[in-house]
Amino acid sequence: MAQDRIDARGFLASSQSAALVDCHYLPRQYEPNYAYPLLVLLHGKGGDEDQLVRAMPTVSRRNYIGLGLRAPHPVHKRDRSIGFSWGSEFDAPGRGAFRAPRPMDPAERFRRALLEPESEPMTRLEDGIFAAIRETRALLHVHSERIFLVGHGEGAAAAYRLGLSFPERFAGVVAVNGWLPDDFQALARFDALRGFPVLAVHGAWNSRVPLDHAHRDVATLRAGGLQVAFQAYPCNHRLGADMLADVDTWIMNHCTNQPLA
After folding, report:
1. Which of 154, 205, 234, 254 sits a CA distance of 20 to 30 A from 108?
2. Model confidence, pTM
3. Distance CA 209, CA 159 (A)
């Protein structure tokens, strides 16, 4: 990114040099000498790296640097691409059970084993996200202890998995209309997760993931000793301005060590 672009207020910058395509949001008056909290933004299924970056002004125009990441798997509808997905590991609850896996051609299986023997898909995804964070920290002034994962829908499932697997690397997880991934041991790192901050915000009319399911996820995390704040809103699965305002308040409370009301 050219320096004149960095200096431009509120500039949205995209890069395709990293493992995951990314897009940055800069505060309206970016101050290079100030260490900003970083919001790692993981979009919903069918979205892209711009989806949550476009919502950043509603969260705050000055408090954060945003890093929007594009999921690695294309999503197609009627033979045309409509966006991207984080993978079948993050399917909405109950949906993956009804989808038979597409059989892989033996030649393709052999090719993948030959060319990609060193890592599993989840490892590559984790490596790509961590690489994007490192590149952002090299480019912009980010507070190393104020890196938050913010996910929407399927992206919230990915944020949960990453944050609960590596709690020492993140200041907290924000899950917007999200869910804990199936077949994931959310509390495997029980000792490290005690007191780990999570904010879950959910639409009360969400038909994709009912409110009862969100309540069960929150109860699971609280039983494991995580510090979980939860709020429901009179909306469906879409992002709402009141949701995003509460996300800003929660993150800033944690950044300034102020107790939640």
Report:
1. 154
2. 0.85
3. 16
